[in-house]
Every structure is written in structure tokens, then in C-alpha cells.
Amino acid sequence: MIAHKQKKSKKKRVLASGQVSADVTTSEMGLKSISSNSIFDPDYIKELVNDIRKFSHMLLYLKEAILSDCFKEVIHIRLDELLRVLKSVMNKHQNLNSVDLQNAAEMLIAKVKAVNFTEVNEENKNDLFREVFSSIETLAFTFGNILTSFLMGDVGNDSLLRLPVSRDSKSFENISVGSVDSSSEKGNFSPIELDNVLLKNTDSVELALSYAKTWSKYTKNIVSWVEKKLNLELESTRNIIKLAEATRTNIGLQEFMPLQSLFTNALLSDIESSHLLQQTIAALQANKFVQPLLGRKNEMEKQRKEIKELWKQEQNKMLETETALKKAKLLCTQRQDEYEKAKSSMFRAEEEHLCSSGGSVKNINKQLEKKRKLEEEALQKVEEANELYKVCVTNVEERRNDLENTKREILAQLRKLVFQCDLTLKAVTVNLFQMQHLQAASLANNLQSLCDSAKLYDPGQEYSEFVKATNSTEEEKVDGNVNKQLTNSCQTSGYGPADSLEDVVRLPDRSNKIEEDRCSNSADITGPSFIRSWTFGMFSDSESTGGSSESRSLDSESISPGDFHRKLPRTPSSGTMSSADDLDEREPPSPSEAGPSSLGTFKKTLMSKAALTHKFRKLRSPTKCRDCESIVVFQGVECEECLLVCHRKCLENLVIICGHQKLLGKINLFGVEFIQVAKREPDGIPFILKICASEIENRALCLQGIYRVSGNKIKTEKLCQALENGMHLVDISEFSSHDICEVLKAYLRQLPEPFILFRLYKECIDLAKELQHVNEEQETKKNGPEDKKWPSIEINRILLKSKDLLRQLPASNFNSLHYLIVHLKRVVDHAEENKMNSKNLGLIFGPCLIRPRPTAAPVTISSLAEYSHQARLVEFLITYSQKIFDGSLQPQDVGVSSTGVVAPQVDQGCLPKPVLSPEERDPEHPMKSLFFSSKEDIHTADSESKVLEPATSFEESEHRQNALEKCIGNKVRLPLDQELETASQKMDDVCKSPKPLTPKFDGEASTVERHTRRTKVMVRPVSLPVDRLLLASLPNERNGRHMGSVNSDRFCKSPAVEGVNRKDTPTTVCPKLDGGDLQTLQRTWDKQYEQNDLTANTSRIIPSALQEKGVTTTVRTSGDHLVSAIEPNKPYTDPVRPPREVLERRSSDSTPLAPVRAPRTLQPQHWTTFYKPRTPGSSVKGNVERPAKPSAAVPPGTTHAPPGHVVKSLPDSESPAACLGQPVGKPNNNSEERDPPDVNPACQRPRLKRMQQFEDLEDEIPQFV
Amino acid sequence: MREYKVVVLGSGGVGKSALTVQFVTGTFIEKYDPTIEDFYRKEIEVDSSPSVLEILDTAGTEQFASMRDLYIKNGQGFILVYSLVNQQSFQDIKPMRDQIIRVKRYEKVPVILVGNKVDLEGEREVPSSEGRALAEEWGCPFMETSAKSKTMVDELFAEIVRQMNYAAQPDKDDPCCSACNIQ
Fold first, then answer.
1. Contact between B86 and A742 using a beta-carbon 8 Å cutoff
2. Which residues of B touch A713 (CB under 8 A)?
3. What is the DSSP letter of B14?
4. Acidic residues compositional bias: what residue ranges (chain A) (predicted)?
5. Alpha helices (runs of H) in A707-810, residue ranges in sequence order
6. What is the ipTM of this complex?
7. What is the CATH number of domain A203-356+363-456?
8. Across the interface, do A710 and B92 touch by the CB < 8 Å criterion?
9. What is the largest CA-CA distance in chain A?
10. Which pLDDT value is given to residue A357?
């Protein structure tokens, strides 16, 4: 009680002594930190107060237990509780932890132990427990002292030593165990003794019964715990088994993986032990633990109740007899009294008799007699009562004995019951723990053996096995890699120490997968090198999929993105690291770079994965941040190896991996000639394609709507910038799959010229149409399955054609296309999951891969029809990718060697085609001319309609020339002489073959210089009547076309021509401006012209001639080509068109064109109402005419009105236009004035595009409605 | 009978075609083919006045985005569809609306914002509140539909007709709308 009060007061002091405790224990750092931290924390104080209160309560309980009923058990339990509380207090508040307190507690325990409970009775109780009380007081006092000193802040200096918790708690364990032991020692009475002890107690039976009751309650708790636990375990084992099974099947599929058998074993043993565990659990639930214990408990309950009942009965009986005894006693006394009365009255009567003597003796005698009788009766009654009383007493005696006996019996029974129950409990508990132990032991053994065998694994072993198993060539490559890697790693890391070098040597020759394994094993294997490698494991784990895909792709012979990293020799000097795989293999040698030490203060958590690969130091001078592109002055870091500079805050977002050498500058990637990127690569495939494709294959092949669903705009933009910024070194794993797809699509879309070059566009579309035709035919035939199994003959034919076509592509284009299509094929292979079949992908990649020259780009609905063709061809390429791209990649060397290669290819491509397709082409041409508003189309239309000149070939030639120009741009210098030779040869051919026309040209050609075009033009219309010209040209068309194509092809290759063209374009633009009316007319013409049919064209000749005359200025260019002679007719037709005619025709045109419409429309007839432009015919009209009209109407100056737009779009439109129109037109006989019309459309187009956007076109629409 | 030109816009794979086909034919198309452009026509009665809907189902894929100007120019009412299981498609819808405004040069173009795939409630990424907020900002109706379970599909097209009716009346003399209004 005193202690309690003390504590209360102390508690108050705690709250009051806030400041005092502030200077607690300045000497002891640790303590100070604890106390200063804790003291000021009100929560801590609250907790402390609570704990102290609890402790004082426990002390009080103990005292109470001792004072009231000094049962040994109760006291021991209380003591135990007290000690537990004390221990927890000391654990929680270590400052209270002192030797003195422990001593006091030990003293108390000893004192309690010393009490001999058998001797305890009311008299000696106080004496016996005096010592116990005093020790309790001591404990309380000590505790109070320590608390005070702690709160006063002098604990640290005190002699009371703070003990480490562990020791302290241990000693306490001893204490409490000791106390329990002592009690059990004392409790080890023989059963009789036990009973005797209990018998002495009055309510011993109740006590025993209550014990039994508690026991059953306790057992109930135990059983429910065990049951719940077992259920949980059962559930978890079930899950473990499921997991293990699944993992096992998955693992089984991957061959040559390190420690595979080990893990299989582990999984097996996992499954096995789980099964075993299930059995154990079942056993425990059944006969081993739960059931017996429950049974015992129930029995116990039953018996306890019975005994209780019995005991009650006995007690009742006892009570009854006792009351009977009391009654008898009462009766006895009553009778005694009566007898006394009777006796006294008789004596009185006798005295009266003596006194009276004489008198009425008779009466007196009678009375005497009476009295005597009464006395005797009373006496008798007394005796009876006495008898009864005696009987009662004996009864009570008996009853008491009986009760005693019953009590003894009951106690014995209860004891036996408890004993039995304990026995059962003990047995099941032993069962429980033994079984658990067995389980654990077997598991431990298993684990031990697994651990041992894991230690035996030689890293790299499986990899070498794997390499052995694959073919020898592969092996060579790998070896090559290894060596290269080896030297590389040595260089980069510059490791001196032998052991690390060894590590380096060992590292490179294993795949990152293995390395990872080793990393995970390294916990077992000690050694500095392994610890180091462990740190990489953390970085490399994300790439594990990459590793596995690499191994997978090795199996297939075809090119896969994964393959590239393996097959291509690494070129460390160029710093091209094409994927994260590389990074992994490279990284290990320089472990420290990623370590926290080199990062200094930069927290790892704030850095992206890519940022972790760098070795940052503080920035020395202000530079531009590589990530956000703003200036870094403060807070900047720089990588020691690649000199990447970045804001510290940008490290979070950095996606560029360290290349371990100076990071190259930013490149232009998007919207830039593909070859500029491709030439950096040995195989001509732009890195972006490889990175994206391999990433997609690694993780997103099964993602629904891959390549269809759009990506996040911001992320996509960021990735685009990052790719331009860091090239191969970009870690794209942080981006979502859709973003990556989006980037790839954007790249392809933004290429100035797609993989399938413009010059092949027409052929591609033709092919697609053919394909459509074939497909339709097949569908209508429905010839059954045999057709589907094998590609039909037609399909095969198209296959061959497409192969030929693609072979015309430069090597890098071909390779890139090959790569992309093979990748798409892989996507299609997972069409079931991702829902992207080849048709879908064709639609998406169609416009990316095959598109017309951008002059046609001003978006009109006419391109809609093209889309389906583009899509169809790409679909076809994907479907038959294996057949089309059967070979390996072409060598990228486009240098001298390829010119030889390319040229023949071109010939092949061109020459056979005419043989195959003229029939098919012819009907298509007019349509095409309608579709295209581009210049080339104008040419086509011209040539076809009017002179039936080799339009397609012409176009082709332009394309080809275009491509060649590009080649030239790309350091492909054609041997000129050779080229010219071939060209002249071709010329000869040409001259010979076209029968009616060529002679004419020939004559001209021989004499004509560059400028003679003009004269030629003049001559033409004049010399040839329109009709005749037409007629004459008609039969010629086919031959001429082919010849033309060949020729122009040839001549275009010469750089001289190119130069001329280039020079001309700008100059021509200016005169055009002056040209005013004429040009506008011509422009409208150009537009108009596309829709015109043959007759329309013919009529233009005369005006054109007139026009020619009016134009006098000529540009003298050194005409070096006879070739030009072939095409004269073409250019002159272009510009010369009478505007009125056009206007007239416009209305009539729409009808003939109508039949050609987009195939996908469901209800085409309605287009006219709503979507006029939709049908290709009308659409062309809509688009082409619309622009034409305003321009015709507007004064010349205004045509050029939106100069911004023109200039802006010129790069797109003009350059192709220049390439297209000029080369042909110029050399032939276009004068300066001629050119404007040619160029104009190109310039105008973008403007028109704008106009479409910004001008009201509504007035146009009514026209069509 | 009035004709209404409706253009369905939205990014790839959000279910534009599914919605349209569900409305026109009453069936749900299972196939997952990207659309280039499809045109449908259906007569319906809205507020007891028969009307002809000409629905242009467009390409969502970015490759064909260049066509959008044209679609917009020719359309009168626009259904902007996003997939409520794809947050990005919701983001994509905003520039499309801007484009409509830019091309039409007119703020009050009849537009409906539609969150499709409401049957996939469990995978929802765009909460209704977000859609509603955006619609409020634009001052246009908002609906959550499901082409698969035909939830609110007919209502959607009826609503766009109403919108077009509404837009046509007060602004008849607006030069911009002369093209949109059919005499």
C-alpha cells in the first residue's frame, strides 16, 4: 500500500519533472538519447504510468492473496504474474532496469518459496508471511527509488547498473522458472498427502471443482488455438502445393537452367512435405490431439458436474442431520425443564403434607401421589429426550463421517480426473510438438541438403552445357562474345586485384540469368567477389525475362530481336549497347560504380533504374541537363564515365543508361531520313526498331490490342526525346508497352520516306489489288480446304512478285522491313491472346510502311481507298513473312558492292513486271490518276490519257531516281562511267524498240541539248495533230513505258542530273510567282487534269502550244542526255491546259469515277448524300477541285498568300516534288516556265491543306449534295 | 425527314464500331478489327419525329488521324468515345474535342462524351465523376454505355439527335453552321 502510494506520488512527479529530466544523463549518450527522446514524449509517459500502475496492482494482489486465503497455488500464480509484469516493465523501460530491482525480486521469490504452506494457519500466518511482506515492501521501495532516480535524471550515474535486456530477461526467466519449479516440487505430494492437505480445508471440494472447471476452460482455449492454427496451416499447405506444382511445370519447360534439378527437388520436397504436413494436421485434428483432448474435457465436465451434485447432496444431508440434532437438543432441554418443574412441585407437595399432618391427609396423599406421578412422567420424558438427543448426536457424528468420507472420495475422484486429464493433455501436447518437430526436422534436413547441393553448383556450368547442346556455330559466336566481352570488361573496369579479375573473367561467359542465380546463391558462398556480385543481382533481376527470351530466340533460326544482341559482334569502341542485356553483362566488372559509395549522398530510392548505372560526381561547370534540357548550375551531377549531366532531381526520371564512354550528342531520330540512323548500325536496322520490338516481344506479346491501343501522349513524347537523346542506352523497361508501340508507330509514321520506298508504292498497290482480286476469286470459288492449305498458284505468283519487289529496296530498308515484319509475325502468332491478327496489324502498319509520296498527303478521303490496299499488302507480308523473307538479312554494305547488286535488281524488278502486269495495270491507271493529286499522278494521267506514254515506268523511274539520290546522299557513289555506259546502252534499246514514236524522238534526241525540250515541245503539238498523236501513242504505250522506266532509271542515276534538278527547283519557284495568271491557270489545270479522261487531255495541246510560244526565257542546262528524248511529250502536256475546259469538265467528271470507291463502306449508295468525298471519284474531286477553284478565282498574288504555310510544308512537299517532277520534266524539254506549273502543285498542296482546315469549304459541299 | 450526320470519334480500341454496330444492327461484334472508316445509315424516331442518322464510324488508330479533319468537317454531331477501362483513351479524347472546335471554328458543336465498356465495371480506370466533370466543362451530355450489353446505346444516339436539333435552332444564321444545317 505504501509502495503504491509512493508510486502515485512519483507519477505526479513524472509529469512535473519534465524540465528536470531534460538534462538526464549527459554522460551516457545512449541513455540520453532514449530518455531525452522519451521523456518529452507524452505518450511514453502515459505508457510508463500505466505500466507502473499495473505493477503496483500486481503487488497488491499478491498481498491480498497472502492475507486472505494463503493457498500456495494462488500465491504462486500471483507472484508469477507480478514477475511477468515487472519483466515487461523493465523490458519496455530499460532505464528502470537495475540490479537492485532484480535483487529485490529475487529476494521476494526466495521468501515465498521458503514459506511452508502446510504449517500455515490463522495464528502463525502473520509470522510466517512477515518476511514475505517485508520483501514485497523492499521490492516496491526499490522500484520506487529507481523510478524516482530515473525521472530525476540520475539513473546513468547511479550505482544501479543498467543491464542489457537480454541478460536481464534471462535472469528473470530463471526466476520465474524457479518459482514454478518450487511450486511443483512442493506440489509433488503423494496423492494421499494431497488429499489430506485438501481435506484439512473446509471448502476443498469447491476448490478442486473450480480447478477442474478452469482446467476445462483452459483446455478449451488450447484446443481452439490448435484447431485454428491447424486450419491455417492446412490452407497454406494447400496453397504451397498448388504453387509448387505450377512452378514445377513452368520450370520444367526451361532447359539448361542453372540449379534446375535442385529447384525441382526443392519443389518436389516442398510438395512432399506439404502432403506430409497435411497428414500430420489431419492426424492432429483426429486422434492425436484435438479429439482426445476434447473427449477428455467433456468427460471432465461431466464428472465434475456429477461430483458437484453428489457433494451438494451430501452437504444437504449433513445439514439435515445437524438440524435434527439441534431439534433433539432443544427437546432435551425442554424436557429437562419440565421434569425440573414437576420435581419441584412434588417437593412442595410433600412439604405441605408434612406440615399439615392431620387434617385432610387423604387429600394430601392424593395430591402427593399425583405429583409423584407427574414427576416420574417428566423424568421419563427427560430420559426419552436424552435418548433422542444421543441418537441425534450419533447421527450427526455418522453423517459427518460420511461427509468426510464423501469428501475424501470426491477429492480422490477429482484428483484422479485431473490426473487423467493432465495425462491426456500431456500426451496430446507431446504428440503435437513431436509431430511438428518431425515435420520441421525433415524440412530442415531437406533444406540443409538443398543448401549443400546448391553450394556444389559451379556457376556457368549449365550455360556451357547449353552452349554445347546448341550448334557449333552458335558456340563460336558466343565465344567471340566472351572474348570481346572479356577484354572489354577488363578495360572498362581496370581491376587490379587478382581475385576480382578472376571474377571478371568468370562473369562474362554466363548469361545474366545464370549470373542472377549465382547472385542468389552467393548468400551461401562467402567471399568478397560474391558479395559484390550480389549487388548487381539487384539491378539485373528485372532483365531476367530478357535473358530468357534471348535463349528462346536462339532456338529459332530466323531473326528475332533477341538474336541480334547475340549474333552481332559487339563493338565496344563505338559505344553501342543495344539492349539491357548488354548492360547486364557489362556491368558486373565495375560493381562499385553502382554501389552506394560512389553515389555518395544521392539516395538510391530517388534514382531511376537507369540512373543507378551511372557513376555520378558533382558537376563542375554549368551545362545542359540531359534529361530536362534546361541549364544545370547547382544541384547537378555528372557521370564520370559517360559525362552525362543531369539535375539531381532528374535522376528520378533519367532513362539513359551509362554507356561507359562519352555519351554521344543528341541525334535527330523522328522525322529524319531513316538511313541516317540506319547507317550507324552494322545491319542497317535502326536501333529504335530493335529496342522497341525486343521489348515488346519480351513482355507484351499477349497484351490485348498491342499496337492498336494508343499510348500515353506525355510518356510517348518523353520516350521519343529520350531515344533521340540516349539512343541505345535508353532503358525503355520503365515505359508501358503501349507507349513503346506508340513510339515505334510514330517513328515509322514520321519517316520522310517509309521502308517501302515511294518509288515502289505504285507497284505495291498494284500488288495489293492483285491480291484482293485473288482473294476475292478464291472466296467466290470456295474451293475447299485444299486451297487454303497451300497458297494457290496465284498467291505464289504474288509471293514471287512481292519478293522481287522488296528486293529492289536498299539493303538497310529491306533488313529493317524484314525485322519489323518478322516481329509483327510474332505478335500475330499470339493473336489469340492479343487479338491482333495480321489483318489488324496490316491496317495499323499499312500507312506506316507503304504510303504514297507526301505530295498526296494533304489528306483527302481518296487516300482511304489506298489505306485498304496498304493494309492488305502489309497483312500479306506478315502472313507470308516466312516465305517472303526466307533468306537472312542483306549485307548492309551499300557502298560499291551494292550498286552492282542494286542495279541488276532494279532491272529484274522492272523488266519482268511489264510482262506480268500490263493487263492489270491498264485499267487501274485512270483510277490511280484520279486518286492522286500528286504531281507524279499528273504525269501519269498525262501520259496515259494523252500520249499514252510510259506513265508508270516514268513514275518508277522517278522513284528510282529518288532512291538513288538518297543512296548518293548516303555516300553511295555510283561509278559514273559504268552507269553512263549502261544508260546509253539502255538508250539504244529504247531507241530501237518503240516503233512509231522513237524514231521521232531519236532524231530529236540526237540533236537536242537540254533546252531543246522547248523546241521539242513546240514541235510536238504543231507537228502532230491531236488525234493522231493519240492514236500513234496508243499502241506504243506498253513498250514505251517499260523502256522509259529503264531509261529514266539509268539516267537518273547520274549525279549530274540530280544536280541540275536541285538547282532548278528554287529558281523556278520565283518566276512562277511572276507568272501570275498563267500559273494559276496551270495550277488549276494540274488539279483538274487528274480527273480528266483522255479526251479532255487531248484538247489541251493547242493551248499548250500557244503558251509555249509566249514563253521565251530558256534555261540552258548542259543537256547530257539523249534519254530525254523519250519523254518530251510528257512534260509539255502538263502545264498546258485551258482553264475553261477544265471548268466545264469538272462537273462531268464525277460520274465516270463514281464506281471506284472505298471497299469498306457498308452502304456506299449513301455516300453521295452525306459523304460525298468518300467515293474515291468524288473525293478526288472534292479535294482537288476545291483548292483549284479558289486559286483560280483569286488573283495570282493571293495564291501564295499563306507563305508561312507554304514555306513550312515545302520541305515535305517540295523536295519530293522536285525530285519527282523536275528530273523528268527538266531534262526533257521543260523550260523555266514549264517548271512553275510542275512545282506549283507541290507548293500549293500544303497551302491547300491549310485551306481545308481554315477556310470554309461549305460552299463546296452544296455542289455535290 | 431530317438527316443527321454523326461522327464517332475516339482513340483505338475503345469500341466505336461496337457501339455503332450495336445501334444499327442490334448485335455486338466480337471481332477486334481496327476500322479504317465505315458508314452506316439508320432511321430512328426521336421525340416523335422521324430522322435519318448517317453515322460515320472512324479509325481510332493514330495512323489515320490525318483523316480526322475531314470527318469533322463533314459531321454535324460528334460522339466522343473513350473506354472507361483505359485512362489513356480518356486523355486522348480531349485533343479530339479541341480539334472539333478548331475545325468547326465554333464552340457549341453538338458533342456527347461517352464512356464505353461499362460492363467491365471491375476493371474501370476512369471514374464516372471524371467523365462527368469533363462533360460539364465542355457543356455537353455525358453517358456511360456498353456496346456489349447494349446499355444506353439507343439513348446515346437519340441524345445526339436532340443535341443536333438543339444546336441547329438558335444558330441558324451562324455562317459556320450553314454547312451543318440541312435546309
1. no
2. 88, 91-92
3. S
4. 1255-1265
5. 713-726, 737-750, 761-781, 785-789, 793-807
6. 0.74
7. 1.20.1270.60
8. yes
9. 212
10. 60
Sheet with B37-46: strands ordered across: B37-46, B49-58, B2-9, B77-83, B111-116, B142-144
Question: Between chain A and chain B, how many beta carbons pairs sit less than 8 Å apart?
Answer: 123
Measured in degrees and rounded to the nearest 5, phi and psi for residue A563 equal: -60, -35
Cβ(A469)–Cβ(A455) under 8 Å?
no
3 state DSSP class of A587? coil
Question: Is B60 in Cβ contact with A710 (below 8 Å)?
Answer: yes
For residues A152 and A165, give the distance between their C-alpha atoms in angstroms, rounded to a whole number: 22
- Per-residue pLDDT band at B79 (split at 50, 70, 90): very high
Closest CA to A1051 of A1100, A1122, A1102, A1109: A1122
* Ranges in chain A annotated CATH 1.10.555.10: 664-781+790-854+861-885
Question: Taking the CA of residue A334 as centre, how many other CA atoms within 13 Å lie in the half-sphere pointing to its CB?
Answer: 11
* CA A1032, A1037, A1039, A1042 torsion-angle sign: positive
CB A583, CB A546: distance < 8 Å: no
For chain A, say whether B1 makes contact (Cβ under 8 Å).
Answer: no
Distance CA A644, CA A616 (A): 9
Q: A206 falls in which pLDDT band (50, 70, 90)?
A: confident
Q: Can you name the residues that pair with B114 across neighbouring β-strands?
A: B81, B143
Fold of A664-781+790-854+861-885: Phosphatidylinositol 3-kinase; Chain A (1.10.555)
The pLDDT tens digits of the residues spanning A123-165 come to 667 777 777 778 888 888 888 877 777 777 644 444 444 444 3
Specify which residues A638 forms β-bridges with: A617, A645
Residue of B nearest to A1172 (CA): B74
Q: How far apart are CA A938 and CA A931, in angstroms?
A: 10
Q: Which helix (H) or strand (E) holds A408?
A: helix A361-456
| Enclosing H/E stretch for A924 | helix A918-931
**Domains recognised in chain B with CATH numbers:** 2-168 (3.40.50.300)
Dihedral sign computed on CA atoms, order A638, A639, A644, A647? negative
Do residues A1120 and A959 lie in contact, with contact meaning Cβ atoms separated by under 8 Å?
no
Helix (H, G, I), strand (E, B) or coil at A672: coil
A739: nearest CA in chain B? B88
Instruction: Give how far Cα A10 sits from Cα of A21, A39, A267, Å.
Output: 14, 14, 60
Give yes or no for a contact between A1250 and A1205, defined as CB atoms under 8 angstroms apart: yes
Per the structure block, which three cell numbers stand in for A349? Answer: 407437595
Is B92 near chain A, with CB under 8 Å? yes
Tell me the fold of A42-152: Four Helix Bundle (Hemerythrin (Met), subunit A) (1.20.120)
Q: Which of A709, A835, A861 is opposite residue B70, by nearest beta carbon?
A: A861
Segments of chain A assigned to CATH 3.30.60.20? 604-663
| pLDDT tens digit sequence for A422-477 | 888 888 888 888 888 887 887 888 788 888 887 777 777 777 777 777 755 444 44
Distance CA A286, CA A290 (A): 6
Pick the CATH number of A604-663 from 3.50.50.60, 3.30.60.20, 3.30.470.20, 3.10.20.90: 3.30.60.20
| A709, A848, A1161 ranked by CB distance to B12: nearest | A709
Q: Is the pLDDT of residue A1236 over 50?
A: no
Classify strands B2-9 and B49-58 as parallel, antiparallel or unpaired.
Answer: parallel
Ranges in chain A annotated CATH 1.20.120: 42-152
To which residue does cell 493571293 refer? Answer: A1198
pLDDT digits (tens, 9 = 90+) for A650-701: 777 777 777 777 777 777 777 777 777 777 777 778 888 888 888 888 887 7
Mark which residues 32-71 of B lie under 8 Å from A by CB: 32-41, 54, 56, 60-64, 66-67, 69-70
Tell me the three cell numbers of residue A781.
470459288
Closest CA to A209 of A315, A77, A305: A305
